Amino acid sequence: MITHDPQDRSWTPAPDRYASAVFRRAGAGGLVLPPVSLGMWQNFGEDRPLSGARAVLRRAVDLGVTHVDLANNYGPPYGAAERAFGEVFAADLSRHRDELVVASKAGYDMWPGPYGDGGSRKYLLASLDQSLRRTGLDHVDVYYHHRLDPQTPLEETMGALDRAVRSGKALYAGISNYPPAEIRRAAEVLRGLGTPLTLVQPAYSMFDRRPEAGIVEAAAEVGAGVAVFSPLAQGRLTSRYLDGIPADSRATRSAYLSADDITDDVVARARGLDAVARSRGQSLAQLALTWALRDPRVTTALVGASSVEQLEANVAGGAGAPLTAEEVTAIDEWAAAPGRDLPRPE
Fold first, then answer.
1. Which of 102, 99, 103, 101 is nearest to 18 (CA)?
2. Beta partners for residue 106, in sequence order
3. Architecture of domain 24-334 in this structure
């Protein structure tokens, strides 16, 4: 836990934090976000020192990264990332609340019993109250339903998001991991209630191009922006696995990536893409971010960071020079096929 004095004013953001910052509009609405946003899915649980989270969040603000993405179950354990953010917010960021766009989500397993999972009004609104207590905020800027729940009528789920906005506990409504047809339906239901759908959040990377098969198009049709997560394919689009699997890597300890995912095919593809990156004077991770942001309909790419140095490199990737037609062709040789994910290991 960070011990802080509410009167302490020893840290202030860099005065030039917006001097070169650029922002991208989220669909047809008024909200703008930085090209690279800080995602707190991993690296911000109780298995990491809080001092690291504090350093990364401070530096993000210094760099003009105004958007922080959370969810109720980010950790480990569940809720830990929101608590970590809340500690740093109270210590350093509360005076700058109106410069920040803070998002959270609910939709996956969070607490025992029938009301701690899914898309019911009961779950979503109770979870939002819990998220506000953990973060110390009186509202989140964006509240997402984290996944489609086939057991709950979409009208109920969207009604809960509308209620969150109308209550003042959220400013914008979003959905994550929804397929194209349900994006259109969700937007229609929300529009009928008087609350626009502001953001759609899918996984998207050079190794997972499924959003190109309708998700990005559906978001654009309904006037929503797109905030992509996992643009580095859980680290597979970094230099981390170009020469094997390090003993301390995510593939040895994460529930979302295993050594089985680092196939010979993945390594060969990553090495081919790394060569393209080096020809541009970028790292592989920076190329992956430049590529994910090449479509202007993509508003922002959510990237975690285990260190200030990693954050700085990622932000630089979001500001990379546009890809040439020749570079796009070279990338397509190694990336997944358009609209497809890489084949899964058997």
1. 99
2. 145
3. Alpha-Beta Barrel (3.20)
CA 20 to chain centre: 22
Here the tokens at position 230 are 């996992």
Provide the pLDDT confidence category of residue 251 given band limits of 50, 70 and 90: very low
- Report which of residues 187 and 11 the model is more confident about: 187
Separation between Cα atoms, residue 326 and residue 331, nearest integer Å: 9
CA 170, CA 140: separation in Å to the nearest integer? 5
The two three-digit tokens of residue 180, written as one number = 């194209």
Q: What is d(CA 38, CA 56) in angstroms, rounded to the nearest whole number?
A: 9
CA distances from 136 to 42, 107, 133, 147 (A): 20, 21, 5, 25
How many of the other CB atoms lie within 10 Å of CB of 1? 8
Backbone φ and ψ for 107, nearest 5 degrees, come out as 165, -25
Q: Are 231 and 289 in contact (CB under 8 A)?
A: yes
- Read off the tokens for 37: 């946003």
The token duo for 55 is 């350093």
pLDDT over 80 at 322, yes or no: yes
Are 303 and 231 in contact by the 8 Å Cβ rule? The answer is yes
Classify burial at 5, counting beta carbons within 10 Å of its beta carbon; exposed 0-12, middle 13-18, buried 19 or more.
Answer: exposed
User: Is the CB of residue 35 less than 8 Å from the CB of residue 80?
Assistant: no
In 233-283, which ranges are continuous DSSP H helix? 264-279
- Tally DSSP H helices, then E strands, for the chain: 10, 10
Query: Can you tell me the distance from the alpha carbon of 173 to that of 226, in angstroms, rounded to the nearest whole number?
Result: 12
Peptide bond into 35 cis (omega under 30): no
How long is the chain? 346
Tokens encoding 83: 């608590």
Please count the other Cβ atoms lying within 10 Å of the Cβ belonging to residue 191.
14
Three-state SS at 230: coil
Residue range 138-170, pLDDT digits in tens: 999 999 999 999 999 999 999 999 999 999 999
- C-alpha span between 163 and 121 (Å, rounded): 9
